[in-house]
Backbone:
């Protein structure tokens, strides 16, 4: 086990949803928070084998970690996720609504099953998870931080990601309302907008199906001509969790290397 060192999130407990898989934004968030001192409850709906590796990785950093399997689409499961985290880790200070799914389809081809899956995880899961977390933070009476993984799709329409983008627009609106309603309890709510991240969720994207397409995509990223690393999303989340962001709420931080800025 690595030597435990104090960090700015020492003594804090975080939940990161959708954090089990090795090539995921959730992993980047969970590891960075642990490096900053937080104990982390890793959540996912499946991927138990990879989740065991995530828990071990966090414990190697000298932090406590547990895996709590729960389907965030279900409001009762979100409440259980929070309750079990508090039972096992003692409290809740930071909730990261990160779980998400995407399907690349023209709107004319979107099936009811795909629509329900995208809206269920990206919108229902975000809302019910954040609400359960905020209720626990109010019970503790010490405030807290909620950070949502939205997307550059929250501000820019992308073809074949219409339903996905619609959920991210909705999430951006929810963040603002949650920030307004929960601010009086000391709970801040912000969202991070990843651009192209080389993670498992993008493996099915037609934009990255060949090396030629990936090269073209890299050229559209103005800083570094490369995809964003999952831990770079984690760094943005860690900022919103830090003392320096105590008065920041309802904010949107794009981490996309300038992808949405366009050519000119």
Residues:
């Amino acid at each position: 086990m690595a030597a435990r060192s104090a960090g700015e999130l020492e003594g804090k407990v975080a939940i990161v949803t959708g954090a089990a898989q090795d090539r995921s934004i959730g992993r980047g968030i969970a590891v960075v928070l642990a490096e900053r001192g937080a104990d982390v409850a890793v959540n996912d709906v499946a991927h138990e084998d990879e989740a065991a590796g995530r828990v071990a990785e966090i414990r190697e950093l000298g932090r406590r970690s547990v895996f709590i399997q729960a389907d965030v689409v279900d409001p009762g499961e979100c409440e259980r996720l929070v309750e079990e985290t508090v039972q096992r880790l003692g409290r809740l200070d930071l909730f990261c609504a990160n779980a998400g799914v995407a399907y690349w389809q023209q709107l004319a081809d979107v099936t009811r099953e795909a629509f329900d899956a995208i809206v269920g995880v990206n919108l229902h899961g975000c809302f019910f998870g954040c609400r359960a977390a905020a209720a626990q933070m109010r019970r503790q009476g010490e405030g807290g931080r909620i950070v949502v993984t939205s997307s550059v799709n929250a501000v820019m329409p992308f073809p074949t990601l219409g339903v996905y983008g619609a959920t991210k627009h909705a999430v951006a609106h929810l963040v603002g309302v949650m920030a307004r309603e929960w601010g009086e309890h000391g709970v801040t709510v912000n969202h991070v907008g990843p651009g192209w991240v080389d993670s498992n969720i993008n493996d099915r994207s037609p934009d990255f199906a060949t090396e030629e397409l990936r090269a073209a995509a890299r050229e559209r990223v103005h800083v570094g001509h490369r995809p964003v690393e999952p831990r770079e999303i984690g760094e943005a989340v860690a900022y919103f969790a830090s003392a320096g962001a105590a008065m920041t709420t309802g904010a949107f931080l794009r981490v996309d290397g300038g992808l949405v800025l366009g050519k000119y």
